[in-house]
Every structure is written in C-alpha cells, then in structure tokens.
Amino acid sequence: MSVRVRRVYEPPEQRDGARVLVDRLWPRGLAKDAARVDEWPKALTPSTELRRWYHAGEGSYEEFAGRYEAELAAGGAAEALDRVRDLAREGDVTLLTASKTPERSHAAVLARLLEA
C-alpha cells in the first residue's frame, strides 16, 4: 500500500492506483475524461473558512494542518476518510489536488493521516 500526492494536472500513471480528487471544486481547465478520477469525496476538503484563512496567510501550515485534522474528525468527513482508508488497504491510492504546492496542502495532511 502506498499513498501519493500529485497535482491533478499531471498525466495519470499506471502506478497511481485509485485516483482520489481531494479538492472541493473541479480543477479549472481540466476535462473530466483526462483526469481519470475514481473518487471525489468533497466531504474530505477543508471548509471554505479554513481554506480562505490559510490562503490569506493568517496562520502557519502547521496551524492549518491542526485545524484541518479537527475538521476531519467530524461527521461526514470522518466517514469519507474511512472510505479512502479502505481504498488504501486494498492497494495504491493517489490523492489529487490542483494546489501548486501539494506538499504544503491539505492533500499532504490527508496522506499523512492515511499512512498512520
């Protein structure tokens, strides 16, 4: 089992396994056929408020990660996280994001939680 984080704009690879889009909005300028997304659990995405707070530069990545983890522990997000955990137990999973810095995005937080 491996969990990878990649930009959704990168071409799909055979080793991607299940491709899970973890952004709330569909990536701009990307055709759905080209993305080859297997799952799109919108409940896993950070709240609009948290996303805006982080992108406004009001807090550190570490603080963002902590707040995001708290959101993931609640309701529908926890169920969606369990679903992706099940996919990861079955094989490789690639978390897809449009973020220009995926290593400092919510996708990286998700990958760390899934690998734990």
UniProtKB/TrEMBL annotation:
- The organism's superkingdom is given as Bacteria
> Which InterPro entries does the protein's record reference?
YeaO-like
| PANTHER family in the cross-refs | CYTOPLASMIC PROTEIN, CYTOPLASMIC PROTEIN-RELATED
Put simply, this protein is called DUF488 family protein
Q: Which organism is it from?
A: Streptomyces lomondensis
